[in-house]
Design brief:
Blueprint (H helix, E strand, L loop, with lengths): L1 H10 L3 H27 L9 H21 L5 H22 L1 H5 L1 H23 L4 H28 L1
Length: 161
């Protein structure tokens, strides 16, 4: 949700606030991942609060900033798909390098991250075209739910059924 609103702020020229929102969002998101994955995979909790959290913060922040500047362009779906595949692979490989548990699920995680990034890239342009902050934030929440659902179904679908 913070990514979508940060994109809106960036376009409005409020780049410092946008950057602060990206940092806050990636920090909270990385901590949320670190807090929930040990429960899902029954891993040692201490592992989740090490370098993998720092890597997630760095990678998600960097990719968010790249995506924010990219979204200003009116790209076709094919280009967004290519960018999303690249982002998904970058996230997955960086997580696999620092976390041996993540490396086991690399073949599933890359497609889920890529699909989620695609939803964010395609939908953020729609969200920030909203007429008010309330509309933009509502759309951002819907996009976040959709992106999270894609990751949950692809990465953890076997646990859901």
């Amino acid at each position: 949700m913070s990514f979508v609103y940060a994109t809106c702020l960036w376009i409005k020229g409020r780049k410092r606030l946008s950057f602060a929102l990206v940092i806050t969002g990636t920090l909270l998101g990385s901590v949320a991942i670190a807090s929930t994955e040990p429960l899902i995979y029954e891993e040692p909790a201490a592992l989740r609060f090490g370098t993998d959290v720092l890597v997630n913060i760095g990678v998600f922040t960097g990719l968010s900033l790249l995506a924010i500047t990219y979204i200003n362009r009116q790209a076709k779906a094919a280009r967004d798909l290519f960018v999303s595949l690249g982002f998904g692979v970058i996230v997955t490989l960086s997580q696999a390098v620092v976390d041996p548990y993540a490396a086991l699920g690399i073949t599933v995680h890359a497609p889920s991250m890529s699909a989620s990034f695609f939803v964010f890239l395609r939908s953020t342009r729609w969200a920030i075209a909203g007429s008010s902050d309330a509309v933009i934030l509502t759309r951002a929440a819907l996009i976040t739910i959709a992106g999270s659902a894609i990751i949950a179904v692809i990465d953890y679908g076997y646990l859901i059924v």
